[in-house]
Design a protein that fits this description.
With about 110 residues, the protein is an alpha+beta fold. It has three helices and four strands. It is globular.
Length: about 110
Amino acid sequence: MTGVVIRTEESEPGKPRFRAIAGDRQSVGRTMGEALDSLTADWGNDIPETAVLIQRFHPDSYFTAAQYDRMQELLAHRASLTAEERVELEALIDAELEATVARTDRLVRPPQP
């Protein structure tokens, strides 16, 4: 299953911008739905199922502010990343996805008293 992450990006004041990412595919839009629609427009049968995770980032024990800040720094210049930086970015994206899974698991199966 391919996971989709949608996150808010900085843009011009008063003009929200969202980035949808699934593997090596990306798209942007003025709304979350527009970014997702653009991302999935040409999928056809290449991707039979997917999960959509909408990231409303708040640092927590699963993914820290330092990790998030570094990921944003790398994303800001992703077109010119070194091989080492690309590996670091992929590791951070994987860590963010794992954090989202852990948060979701906590919501689905809250701790028992």
